[in-house]
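Entry 14. Structure prediction run on the chain below.
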Amino acid sequence: MRPPIVRNSQKGFTLLEVMIALVIMSIAISVAFETFSAVTKSWSRARAIIDKVHHGDFVMGQMTAALRSMSISTNAPEKYGFRIKNNSDGEGENTP
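Output returned:
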């Protein structure tokens, strides 16, 4: 009778292979997190700039409306003037 053939071909990963895979995954996750963090910060800065631009546009619209509603005095033709009614607290809400 023949002795059974012993095959030494075990399937699986070595400890070194698993550790290398973990290092590669850790690097990939940290790069993804840093990218996400940078995008979030850029988004916040852009939102702040857009808010300031919208506020400036609102102010320019108010000034344009005030200048368009200026009155010309017929008593003194060399002088011009306009009135601005102050009914805003500067934050976009009207005050009585």
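The radius of gyration is 36 Å.
Filed with the rest of this week's runs.
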